[in-house]
Amino acid sequence: MERTRGDQWTGLAPADWRASPYTGWARAHWEVLADYLLLSARHYASPGHGRITPPGVEGGYGHDVDGLEGFARTFLLAGFRLAGAADDPHNLAEWYAQGLKEGVDDSSPHRWVKLTEHDQAKVEAASLALILDLTRDRLWANLDAATQEKIVTYLAPVVGDRAYPRNNWLWFRIVVETFLRSVGGPWSQEDIEADLALHDSFVRADGWLADGDGRDFDHYVGWALHLYPTLWQRMAGARDLADDARRERDRTLLDRYLADAVHLVGADGAPLAQGRSLIYRSAAAAPFWTGALAGVPSTSPGVLRRAASGIAAHFFVHGAPDDHGLLTLGWFDEWRPLAQSYSGPGSPYWAAKGFLGLSLPKDHAVWTAVEEPLPVDQGDFLRPIAAPGWVAAGTAVDGLVRVYNHGTDHAHAGDLVGDSPLYARLGYSTATFPLLDAAAWTTPLEMSVTLLDAAGRATHRAGFVLTRLDCPPGGPAVLESVADAHWLDPAETQFRHGSGYAGAATPAGRLTVTSVVTPGAEVRGVLYEPTEPADPGAAPVTLRIGGWPAAGDGVISAITPLTPGARPGRATRDDASPLGSPATVPYLDYPVTPGQWVWSLVTLNQNTSTPTNQRKGPTP
User: Fold this and answer.
1) Distance in angstroms (rounded) separating the CA atoms of residues 591 and 523
2) Which residues neighbour 117 within 8 Å (Cβ) at sequence distance 6 or greater?
3) Is residue 490 within 8 Å of residue 502, measured between CB atoms?
4) Most C-beta atoms within 10 A of its C-beta, which of 125, 157, 181, 383?
5) How far is CA 608 from CA 436, 494, 619, in A?
6) Same domain (yes/no): 172, 215
């Protein structure tokens, strides 16, 4: 990050590069940004503040859910802001107290959607409970008894509810019941014990957790599955539910996870562009503040703040929030294809999780320490990450982090489903985005190896099996996976929650893909072996090897044949990436030759001549 960016804040003194030599961001920058978001959102509140509905197309769950999301998620941000400050210059406590009263007033046309009316209310209820607990003396204690009783009634349906999805949602029930317990409301020890056991079943190697029983690894590991246990253990109602052994185990898991997570942030603060819900943007900073809150021993406060501030600064200088102080559905600017089908205009405000650091006092070590370098600031690296089947590769010359993926697809081994662009590609980075146009879900291209039939249909690899992950000191790293490649006829109805398409699969053969990785390059080998086809007339005629997607002027992507006989090509797709249009992917086509290895060199480099964004900061 160039220092001129940090100096563009207006209304603040120039950044103190002595305390923050990498980002220039101090606590004051975070406070101003939080206030900017909160005060801007107020313009879209209902008369009693119970709903906040930012402008934009109605979300997939409807206008009523949109308003609840806008309130609950900005309430999360307001709570963090209040918890770490001695004063309340913007009257946040009183303003949101009014919103709480309206939200639980059944006679109001702006009341909240109830937990029995829509499942999404169960998600938002957790944010309400967390902040009511965190700001107990400043907010809950000052509510009148009738409003307190109505809030308990609103939250109570979580008890005994067996309809929660078996993933990170388990924490929404734990958090709500724990708050209810602390205020004399209904709760169930059986519920909490069952949910904790389910959480424990998600633990994988080296502090990673899967978001369910599949190979579901993404930012939810940090901003949900590590965040909520740490916050829950500090809730008033959890004091005799979370014993010392669980607290220490969870801290140890978080500590180990963060040792990997700091390798997944680029020098410019960009988080890894992989997985669903990327519209939450700076929520990617949440696990680093969580580490500070938990007091992890292995990653210093200076590194934790450098990572978190880098992420927030990265989005801010590229235009998020927008010039009206709003978070839109997108990455930098609004870009609707990045959202899931259920996302609405209030959804992006889960970015509030990335502001958790504001709940810590200004004299906490994470705020007083001098920023320290991320791994990519210090030099080139290769790092194996076993649970998701990744090798992370960083290059100091351009600050870029690449992840090579042979273990994650948001599916199960052996599944014959479509490849999700967000999970099943062979690589992701901090400077590229998987293509996300309509064709990306049916026709894998970038960072993919596919077989094409005579009509040009491309196969999918989801359900593949990781067979090798070696990363010796000094490198190179070697990853390998085997896939039963298949064509897919997508079902007419799809649920766009991040997974690949469902449909009818036709076998195309077996593909073994090997990635030999150095910090700046991948040598990719592919072996095709025919298998008995379900349709004797279906036969692959072309082997296609796709490189990195390039959009805008940020990166340079190339693929070079190492085996003779390639036909180079370059595909261009409009409106396929939030980083710019068009997006371009280089690829190589080979004739299908069973039993013969085909090798290519795949590279991605940051364009270091790209002009610096000079956007100014918000005025306090």
Assistant:
1) 19
2) none
3) yes
4) 125
5) 25, 40, 30
6) yes
- CA distance to 47, 64, 112, 561, 604, per residue, from 109 (Å): 10, 10, 9, 64, 53
Give the pairing of strands 381-385 and 567-573: unpaired
Closest CA to 530 of 596, 585, 433: 596
Residue 433, phi then psi, degrees to nearest 5 = -125, 140
Cis peptide before 533 (omega within 30 of 0): no
pTM exceeds cut of 0.90? yes
The answer to the question of residue 391 being in a domain is yes
Half-sphere exposure of 302 (CA within 13 A, CB side): 12
Residues 255 and 143 in one domain: yes
Instruction: Tell me: do 372 and 385 sit in the same domain.
Output: no
Q: Please, what is the end-to-end C-alpha distance for the chain in angstroms?
A: 23
Domain count, the chain: 2
Domain that residue 307 falls in: 3-377
State pLDDT tens for residues 399-415: 999 999 999 999 999 99
Rounded Cα–Cα distance for residues 193 and 238 (Å) = 12
* Residues ≥6 apart with Cβ < 8 Å to 82: 88, 92, 93, 135, 138, 139
The CATH number of residue 430's host domain is: 2.70.98
**For residue 98, how many other CB atoms are within 10 A of its CB?**
17
> What does the pLDDT look like over 113-170, one tens digit per residue?
999 999 999 999 999 999 999 999 999 999 999 999 999 999 999 999 999 999 999 9
